[in-house]
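Sat 14:20. Reprocessing the chain from the morning session after the first attempt stalled halfway. Input below, unchanged.
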Amino acid sequence: MGSVENCSGSESEVVTIDFHQAKNLIDSGYGYLDVRTVEEYRKGHVSAEKIFNIPYMFNTPAGRVKNPEFLKEVSSLCNEDDLLIVGCQSGVRSLYATADLLTIGFKNVSNMGGGYLAWVGNGFPVKMEEIHVPGKLEEKPKQEMKVIPVPANAEEKPKQENLEIPVPVKVEENPKQENGEIAVPVTLEENPKQEP
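Finished this time. Tokens:
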């Protein structure tokens, strides 16, 4: 157990558990509150069924500053009786975040000692998020993968088994073909020449 003095001067008892205990609790249904920045979270995070990313601190040009909405954001997603493991990169931010949550009445929160670094260092499962910035994907041309049947050898008869090669194609708003497929003449060489 550790203790952290909170802003009002009283102390909250913070229970710090190691990453092995944290994994067992997460596997048994505990939620995982990742208090790292969004950027850190997207690069990789603990694999958990119930996971929330609410930064405890933000990176600014002047350094790290505490997220003034942290407690409000957590309270909007979690109840005071929810079973939660709180983690960060190394266990420091999560220690302070856990103390703050205890101060406002959360009863079943534990700090994960060692944080994400200890989790990864022990080969526990992680996930990475795909980054989607609203409005940015629409600016790129729409593409999808189509499978175009290609004869195994252009000189052989059509009875020959076909190779299926995925080819990126631009999907037009008003396709001219009825079925949307594009016929591409392809010649496969057995020993293609390599240019120097």
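Residues 92-103 form the longest helix (12 residues).
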